[in-house]
């Protein structure tokens, strides 16, 4: 797949304040076409904040962003606009409405509607059925498009969120801690999914605490700490062991300073 | 009865929207037919219900959407008095009917819109914002009206009276058809429209709604504005039916409207709501007083029975929904194993 742009996304000098709390201070992040970027850092490093700016949940206090080399106006940017640019997100927790049936969960935010805004329930249910059977392979588990999200296990939830991202055919998929609270087998599915993103020519930003997972699937590692990017390695430059060592050293050095 | 049969019964309960509450209504009317056959076996009492229930029913239908979004509105009694005042006083002063009607509706929309801004933009909890606006708008109405009642008996000859509160075939109060129309429209909005789905997700988990691209603030403003407009419509129906406006009109509606919504099976926790349940809940609440008086118990019993019905109905709804979620897991386990 050929891409006629330099970066899938490019964020420049991003600052974000929540009141007096500084969440991000001058972050630059580029994601190349068909690149999987692993975002690593402790809690509070600013990973999720950065990702939420990227996916349109809220704007930065300061900074610029380019999607496929096109400058974004944050005034008009939002989750729906991000969707139209082909940016999809799979969140750790915040992905499903617990009391809602799965067919609604697949389409929330971009329902299949007629010109009066009424939902084509039949169509949404058919597509949901297709996503569940063909894209994520929910077979014979007693879960139907009418099941409420609350009856699903952690892995099944993640499957639904991933299936949603796959169906909407994203160019850039953001995964925020997708393997938290999953069984080993379920984690494997998520890792396979990221591998498939790469193979199909798409880009991905992958946030995880589990360094071995990040190392396995990412082309590049971006390490964040306290609102800044502190290191940037290509996979070819660093082995899993070296990456581990680096993070450990960095953490110990930090402890000595503080 | 085998286990599967229990499951089937429960599934039927789960499939037909608000079936338990419909049964409570049928049982209640059946009981009144037994205790007060002279009243409840004749059409007259039902005609009375169909003329008095529509205003609180329309309020309860609107409130169902608010509660489904995880919010609450305490300001609708103030809109009943404020919009009722706008309608009655403008009619008295000008003799026009369409203009006062439009102004009354706009008045309600404005109150609702202001509620929406306070909640969505300022960030006030809806219970506080609408409590404040309840005091403010009813207080303003008392000042504007000088606390006086307005008799608008002459409006009986006007087209607007025929349109909204006439007796069709001299038996069926037309306002019941308007209320039914509101119920049908709101059912489709809640269950089949993008607006309703956004409401359900906001009530379910506001952050999920937000990250999935629902404009939560704009939705809440629209929702409270809609509630304001519906309250104003209820105010006009009430004023037309009574052909009198008085400043405390609507003040008795607060608790019975909320009771109707919760008896109907809408959960206070948000994320779900039933229009059909609210429809029957409103008729249950509206029938109890007449039924009790006709049964010879005396009006003092009304509140006690209201409370009893509320507690029984909500308990029933909780037990049934618990049953429903246990089937979900039951099926899952059996098919995996």
Describe what this molecule looks like in 3D.
The complex is a heterodimer of chains A (258) and B (337). Chain A is of the alpha/beta class. Helices cover 35% and strands 24% of the residues of chain A. Chain A has a domain at 9-94 and 204-257: 3-Layer(aba) Sandwich (Rossmann fold), CATH 3.40.50. Chain A starts with 8 loop residues before the first strand and ends with a helix. The longest helix of chain B is centred in the last third of the chain and has 36 residues, at 301-336. Chain B has 337 residues and is mainly alpha-helical. A two-stranded antiparallel sheet of chain B has the order 1-4. Chain B has a two-stranded antiparallel ribbon with strand order 2-3. Chains A and B meet through α2 of A and α11, α12 and α16 of B.
What would the keywords be for this entry?
heterodimer, A: about 260 residues, alpha/beta, Rossmann fold, four-stranded antiparallel β-sheet, 8 helices, B: about 325 residues, ABC transporter involved in vitamin B12 uptake, BtuC, two-stranded antiparallel ribbon, two-stranded antiparallel sheet, 16 helices
Architecture blueprint of SSEs:
The complex is a heterodimer of chains A (258) and B (337).
Chain A (H helix, E strand, L loop, with lengths): L8 E10 L2 E11 L4 E5 L6 H8 L7 E6 L2 E2 L7 H6 L2 E4 L11 H6 L13 H15 L18 H14 L4 E5 L7 H16 L3 E5 L3 H7 L2 E6 L2 E7 L5 H18 L1
Parallel strand pairs in A: 3-8, 3-9, 6-7, 7-8
Antiparallel strand pairs in A: 1-2, 1-4, 4-5, 9-10
Chain B lengths: L2 H13 L3 H17 L1 H4 L2 H10 L1 H15 L7 H19 L3 H25 L3 H20 L4 E2 L7 H7 L1 E2 L3 E2 H19 L1 H11 L1 H6 L4 H27 L1 E2 L7 H11 L11 H20 L6 H36 L1
Antiparallel strand pairs in B: 1-4, 2-3
Helix pairs in contact in B: 1-16, 2-15, 5-10, 5-11, 5-13, 5-14, 5-15, 6-7, 6-8, 6-13, 7-8, 7-13, 9-10, 10-11, 11-13, 14-15, 14-16, 15-16
């Amino acid at each position: 797949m050929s891409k006629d742009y330099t970066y899938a996304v490019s964020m420049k000098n991003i600052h974000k304040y929540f009141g007096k709390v500084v969440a991000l201070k001058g972050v630059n992040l580029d994601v190349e076409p068909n690149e999987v970027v692993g975002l690593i850092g402790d809690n509070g490093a600013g990973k999720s904040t950065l990702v939420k700016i990227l996916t349109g949940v809220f704007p930065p206090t300061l900074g610029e962003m380019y999607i496929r080399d096109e400058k974004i106006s944050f005034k008009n940017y939002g989750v729906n606009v991000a969707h139209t640019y082909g940016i999809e997100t799979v969140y750790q927790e915040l992905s499903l409405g617990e009391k809602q049936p799965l067919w609604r969960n697949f389409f929330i935010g971009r329902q299949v509607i007629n010109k009066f805004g009424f939902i084509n329930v039949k169509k949404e249910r058919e597509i949901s059925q297709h996503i569940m059977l063909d894209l994520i392979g929910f077979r014979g588990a007693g879960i139907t498009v009418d099941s409420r999200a609350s009856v699903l296990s952690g892995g099944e939830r993640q499957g639904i969120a991933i299936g949603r991202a796959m169906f909407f055919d994203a160019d850039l998929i953001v995964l925020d801690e997708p393997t938290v609270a999953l069984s080993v087998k379920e984690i494997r599915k998520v890792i396979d999914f990221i591998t498939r993103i790469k193979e199909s020519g798409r880009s991905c930003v992958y946030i995880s605490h589990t360094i071995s997972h990040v190392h396995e699937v990412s082309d590049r590692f971006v390490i964040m700490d306290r609102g800044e990017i502190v290191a940037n390695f290509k996979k070819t430059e660093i082995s899993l062991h070296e990456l581990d060592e680096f993070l450990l050293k960095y953490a110990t050095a930090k402890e000595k300073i503080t | 009865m085998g286990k599967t049969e229990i499951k089937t019964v429960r599934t039927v309960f789960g499939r037909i929207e608000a079936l338990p509450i419909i049964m409570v209504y049928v049982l209640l009317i059946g009981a009144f037919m037994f205790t007060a056959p002279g009243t409840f076996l004749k059409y007259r009492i039902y005609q009375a219900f169909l003329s008095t229930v529509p205003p609180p029913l329309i309020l309860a239908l609107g409130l169902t959407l608010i509660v489904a979004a995880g919010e609450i509105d305490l300001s609708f009694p103030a809109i009943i008095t404020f919009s009722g005042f706008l309608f009655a006083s403008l009619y008295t002063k000008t003799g026009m009917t369409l203009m006062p009607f439009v102004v009354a509706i706009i008045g309600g929309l404005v109150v609702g819109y202001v509620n929406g801004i306070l909640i969505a933009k300022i960030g006030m909890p809806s219970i506080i914002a609408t409590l404040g606006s309840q005091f403010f708008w009813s207080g303003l109405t008392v000042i504007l009206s000088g606390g006086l009642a307005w008799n608008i008996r002459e409006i009986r000859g006007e087209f607007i009276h025929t349109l909204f509160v006439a007796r069709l075939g001299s038996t069926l109060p037309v306002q019941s058809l308007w209320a039914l129309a509101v119920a049908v429209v709101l059912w489709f909005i809640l269950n089949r429209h993008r607006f309703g789905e956004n409401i359900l997700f906001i009530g379910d988990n506001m952050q999920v709604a937000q990250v999935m691209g629902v404009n939560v603030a704009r939705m809440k403003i629209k929702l409270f504005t809609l509630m304001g407009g519906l309250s104003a419509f209820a105010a006009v129906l009430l004023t037309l039916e009574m052909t009198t406006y008085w400043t405390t009109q609507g003040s008795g509606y607060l608790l019975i409207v909320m009771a109707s919504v919760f008896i109907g099976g809408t959960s206070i926790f948000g994320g779900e709501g039933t229009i059909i349940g609210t429809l029957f809940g409103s008729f249950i609440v509206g029938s109890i007083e007449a039924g009790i008086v006709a049964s010879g118990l005396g009006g003092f019993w009304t509140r006690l029975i209201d409370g009893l019905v509320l507690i029984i109905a909500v308990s029933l709804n909780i037990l049934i929904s618990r049953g429903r979620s246990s089937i979900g897991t039951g099926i899952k386990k059996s098919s995996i194993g």
